[in-house]
Design goal:
Keywords: ATP-binding, Glutamine amidotransferase, GMP biosynthesis, Ligase, Nucleotide-binding, Purine biosynthesis. Homodimer. Its EC number is 6.3.5.2. Pfam families: GATase, GMP_synt_C. Catalyzes the synthesis of GMP from XMP. By secondary structure, the protein is α/β, with parallel strands linked by helices. It has three domains: about 180 residues, 3-Layer(aba) Sandwich (Rossmann fold); about 200 residues, HUPs (Rossmann fold), CATH 3.40.50; about 100 residues, GMP Synthetase, Chain A, domain 3 (2-Layer Sandwich), CATH 3.30.300.10. Helix content is about 35%, strand content about 25%. It has a nine-stranded mixed β-sheet, sandwiched between helices. A five-stranded parallel β-sheet has the order 12-11-10-13-14, sandwiched between helices. Strand 16 and strand 17 form a beta hairpin. Helix 6 crosses helix 7 and helix 6 packs across helix 12. It binds xanthosine-5'-monophosphate (XMP). The site of xanthosine-5'-monophosphate (XMP) has 14 residues, from loops.
């Protein structure tokens, strides 16, 4: 792989993704990595990410610079560029001239292999206080800006390169080209990593791991479980059984989507557990959000364990034990829960609607090295319907936490209809790419007066909660066009009898969360 050394800024994951976009597999590692650990990973190249501080600041992220002695081709970016300059004998100084944001850079000469094919003057994205004022011996200066005499450098003999700006962000005009120049031209790596190669590699690995044993997968209807299940099915066919728990809190058409479209496109052997009555029975009378979540989580585990016991018994009778469980763990979860030095563990994992953690299975996690957009690409390559691959996040407890008040069958019907209208109109308006998700929330214990035809109504309000986000950790409310909002409102109040008012939530996260409960 290409190792991306994370100095704790938010850019390292982005760099790793850009490297993969260039068709080369990348892996994130903490800056505390030792030369021995680097050697064990046998990287084809190293990229040092940006970081939040000056290389001279107290508490600046440390890096064992004897890694440079290993002779592995290296690209330093921003902070990483300065770490490299300082370690190799250049000079890094506080110039007093901070550069932040779009900055004009000029190539020195032809820009070398690194900047080949990019214009002599270009806009780059900067974010730094210190600057490299003298390049180390043997290095050629490849670009400069007004405030930074050495904005890029390179040494073709050692294959060490560096840029002060951030080529991984879209605001740097030729950023991707620079990353590709480094990988393909300077290091000479082919662009051979893509969804097909990932599928082939995973299929081979899963076959070897599983042998002739049986495998269970829990299908939630979400993207990650859909793709990981399809991938395992591609590898081992009917040795896999997928379990889908219908808890009665799904959105309109979701169960059909899984039972019909998903099964048709993959051929997966599916067991649906019809548990709506049980769930609703246990949810009766509950209004507290935490109690709802706990109840739903507990019942989910019970339903899954029952299905699992049945399958284990069946498999035993046939002579092949169930040994493995598929999980759709993604790379950001792995990175975040690994929490290497300098990377804060900020994500609180929502386990509700998840699986019991004491199951006696080995895990198969075929998406462990992948980012979300790569998972979607693989889903498409595996032939999954766009409606599943492009799906927005939906919480495990489902519509249960979008009914403010007690969850009942009637209220679920109302919310399901309103939600389907909002989703259809957002899709029709081409806004799916712009919104992260748009919960529709039923204020079931609130009533408001309305007038319809010649009668007074006394119905319920719903809240539209369209949000834009990168990762759900923070979010902003999406500025939807008024005419789309008007259409959603008209249709919901006309077509869903119990709803006579549609409101819009205009709060960011923080201080509000995305869901209302
Ligand atoms: P909040 O409401 O915390 O939501 O801003 C952040 C993201 O997580 C989803 N979410 C959940 N997902 N179980 C889940 O599987 C849950 O209990 C849960 N609560 C919230 C939410 O839809 C959003 O994408």
């Amino acid at each position: 792989p290409v190792l991306v050394v994370d100095f704790g800024a938010q850019y390292a994951q982005l760099i790793a993704r850009r490297v993969r976009e260039a068709g080369v597999f990348s892996e994130l590692v903490p800056h505390s990595i030792t030369p021995d650990e680097v050697r064990q990973k046998n990287p084809v190249a190293i990229i040092l990410s940006g970081g939040p501080r000056s290389v001279y600041a107290e508490g600046a992220p440390e890096f064992d610079t004897s890694v440079f002695d290993l002779g592995i081709p290296t690209l330093g970016i921003c902070y990483g560029f300065q770490v490299m300059a300082k370690a190799l004998g250049g000079e890094v100084a506080e110039t007093g001239q901070r550069e932040y944001g779009a900055t004009d850079a000029t190539l020195a000469g032809d820009g070398g292999v690194l900047l080949a094919g990019t214009p002599a003057a270009q806009t780059v994205w900067m974010s730094h206080g210190d600057a490299v004022v003298t390049a180390p011996d043997g290095f050629e200066v490849l670009a400069q800006t007004e405030a930074t005499p050495v904005a890029a450098f390179g040494n073709a003999d050692t294959c060490f390169y560096g840029v002060q700006w951030h080529p991984e962000v879209k605001h740097s005009d030729h950023g991707q080209r620079i990353i590709e120049n480094f990988l393909h031209k300077a290091v000479g790596l082919p662009a051979s990593w893509n969804s097909e190669s990932v599928i082939d590699e995973q299929v081979a690995r899963i076959r070897e791991q599983v042998g002739s044993a049986r495998v269970i997968s829990a299908l939630s209807g979400g993207v990650d479980s859909a793709v990981s299940t399809a991938l395992v099915h591609r590898a081992i066919g009917d040795q896999l059984t997928a379990v889908f728990v219908d808890h009665g809190l799904l959105r309109k058409g979701e169960r059909e989507q899984v039972e019909n479209d998903y099964v048709a496109s993959t051929g997966v052997r599916l067991v649906t557990v019809d548990a709506a009555d049980t769930f609703l029975g246990h949810l009766a009378g509950i209004t507290d959000p935490e109690t709802k979540r706990k109840t739903i989580g507990r019942e989910f585990i019970r339903a899954f364990e029952q299905a699992q016991r049945d399958l284990v018994a069946e498999a035993k009778a046939e002579g092949e034990p169930v040994k493995f469980l598929v999980q759709g763990t993604l790379y950001p979860d792995v990175v975040e829960s690994g929490g290497g030095a300098g990377t804060a563990n900020i994500k609180s994992h929502h386990n509700v609607g998840g699986l019991p953690d004491d199951l006696d299975f080995d895990l198969i996690e075929p998406l462990r090295t992948l980012f979300k957009d790569e998972v979607r690409e693989i889903g498409r390559e595996l032939g999954l319907p766009e409606a599943i691959v492009g799906r927005q996040p939906f919480p495990g407890p489902g519509l249960g936490i979008r009914i403010i008040g007690e969850v009942t069958r009637e209220r679920l019907e109302i919310l399901r209809d309103a939600d389907a209208i909002a989703r259809a109109e957002l899709t029709a308006a081409g806004l799916d790419g712009e919104i992260w998700q748009c919960p529709v929330v039923l204020l079931a214990d609130v009533r408001s007066v309305g007038v319809q035809g010649d009668g007074r109504t006394y119905g319920h309000p719903v809240v539209l909660r369209p949000v834009s986000s990168e990762d759900a950790m923070t979010a902003d409310w999406t500025r939807l066009p008024y005419d789309v909002l008007a259409r959603i409102s008209n249709r919901i109040t006309n077509e869903v009898a119990e709803i006579n008012r549609v409101t819009l939530d205009v709060t960011s996260k923080p201080p509000a969360t995305i869901e209302w409960e």
